[in-house]
Amino acid sequence: MADNATAAGREANRRIEFMLLTEIRERELREAAEERAAILANAPRPVMRPEGLAPDHEEEETE
């Protein structure tokens, strides 16, 4: 809010900006999607275990 005692202040106070709620919601959704994408882009990826390191799963006979 500017000072209404001056012409410049009155002019500044006459100029207001409106944002529609749908614009705000769309921006919030876009920013959230970008944040999730950045997190996933930097997340560790699963790596297959080399065959030589896999344990043998031979069943033992039980009596």
Key terms:
single chain, mainly alpha
Topology:
Layout: H1 7-14, H2 21-41
- Overall pLDDT score: 82
Work out the radius of gyration: 31 Å
Shape: rod-shaped
Q: Assign a percent range to the helix content.
A: 40-55%
Binned strand content? under 5%
Number of helices: 2
Q: Report the count of strand segments.
A: 0
Low-confidence parts: none
Commentary on this structure:
- The protein is an all-alpha fold.
- Helix content is 46%, strand content 0%.
- It contains two helices and no strands.
Outline of the structure:
By secondary structure, the chain is mostly helical.
